Amino acid sequence: MSSTRENTKVQNAQTIAAESTSNKPPRSRPNAKSAMWQHFEKIYNSKTNKIEGTKCMYCEKTFVYSVANGTSLMRKHLTSCKKFPQNVDSSQTLLSFKTTQKDGRQTSEIGT
């Protein structure tokens, strides 16, 4: 009688465990999209269709991408990218030099 009771307890425990796992929604990977992907273009391997590199949308520099390093290299690049809008100092104007020829003489003018 005790073995029957123990078997029933084991079966009940197995049933409860099975029901508790079946009631859970399927585990999905969290949407861990980094904000860095807004500034980089993905470069796919044509054979495997996996991401093998990235390209900066501002300076068009390319980088090798690995899942192990994630987006750290992209974040580091943006801090030093000369064409990234947040890194451009708009308080300083860029000077342009115009070279003209007058009467056989070359003259330069500064423009903004």
Automatic annotation (TrEMBL):
It comes from the Eukaryota. This is Uncharacterized protein. It comes from Pistacia integerrima.
